[in-house]
Amino acid sequence: MSHTLLQDVLFNAKTVRALDRLATENTGISSFDLMQKAGAVALAELIETFGEPSFLHVFCGGGNNGGDGYIVAALAAASNISVTIYEVGNTAAISGDAELAKQLCVEANINMQEPSVDCDLSQGVIVDSLLGTGFSGPLRGNFALAIEVINSSFLPVLSIDVPSGLSSDTGAVEDIAVKADLTVTFVGAKQGLFTGRGPALCGEIIYDSLDIPESVLQKMSPSAELMDLSELVEYIPELDADVHKNQRGHCMVIGGDLSFGGAAIMAAEASLKTGSGLTSLVTRPEHVAASLARQPEIMACAVASGQQLEPLLDRPTVLVIGPGLGRSSWSEQLMQKAMATDLPMVVDADGLNIISEGRVVTNIQNRSWIMTPHPGEAARLLGISVGDVEADRFEAVRRLQEKYNAVIILKGAGTLVSAQAGEPIKVCPYGNPGMATGGMGDILSGVIGSLIAQGMDLQTSAELGCCLHSAAADMAVQDRGYKGLVATDILPYLTDAMNQWDQELS
Questions:
Q1: pLDDT of 353-380, one tens digit each?
Q2: 34 located within any domain
Q3: Average pLDDT over residues 445-474
Q4: Staple partner for 276: which of 122, 251, 284, 296, CB 3.0–4.6 Å?
């Protein structure tokens, strides 16, 4: 079977449809042959994951996704598995390959009925083939009822191509969507499975090319790519035996207004533990003692104004500004002085909010910088709602990159990185729900700043930083579980992960 758990390149629905056409035109394989292959792969993966079920409940829509489900049902019945098909939508209008697939089920005398709240789903496995990659907009007819019936059962669920109700292009859900335990996707991996609501709804993702030749797949450009930690780790600089601290860069973290000192301290500590030769912290005088007590290796500098910051800016290799920065006059002064330099910058949190309010306008378009917004900050930077951002995270990160001419990291489940217009957007496949807690973004900004300080370019630093940060969180969860995870819990795992990678490369 030609599957991998994750395919590096990702496509939108339009491109996948084009790949389907190219496959039939260039290989002589009919579209019905591809549908039969998809159904066979889906059933095989179902049995491999859940074991051979005694009962199979297949929910079929009227399109080609439903056709895949009919094939699964027919093959299961041929293997003496008891099958019930629940038909949704205008089944009288079914045509083409889906009609041929349904006819196989008719000939096998498989029970077909409409779904209802009284469906007997007490045992077996559910197959979701209601809506495919072409779905968008609100649910119509009894599709919502069918999805509710699926989700209210306690049975394992396999979704074919995409959990029904989830946009394969954006990872957004407008009404309701199937929550699957396993998603088997074909021809090209769909970008929406890996961001937004996708990671929460897809379960394990398995990709199968259906034996379409690589030469065909390469004729279409991907719209996104999954970041690969095993490739990015090769950019971590090796240390010569005679290396000294000044060769490993100096990361300066600027932030920590009154009541927000912890954010800047965490960012500085993350920078230090990710390998920066020197890490300094510019903060309110009230927070210097806390920094020294927690991590004396951080060079904590007290400043009461932007004027006091200015002479310190000839020291660092890179600036990280925003963690705990606040929005006071002190905050704005520091932001203005930082923006007036030519130093590369990582801008997070209130640094982004100050920019979105238009209070700092110096040299925005010509900066060498990374911006790390969460959806709320992204919405403010674009002048739209959070709902608009989450409705299409790919479009939001593209617009941010174009507007600010920066490397943009749009945080969230399936963090996105956009570095240059026209290039595929990068998607982070690592991370876990335990990361949804205060301070995680501060840790990330410090990690990225440290990588820049060590000589990596902005795009590599952004991609590796996201992956390192999320992988460290995954390591922490393996040891501790995700419930009650806090940002500082992942700090030792940053160091552990980097050292492990060094050992693997040596």
A1: 999 998 776 667 778 999 999 999 999 9
A2: yes
A3: 97
A4: 251
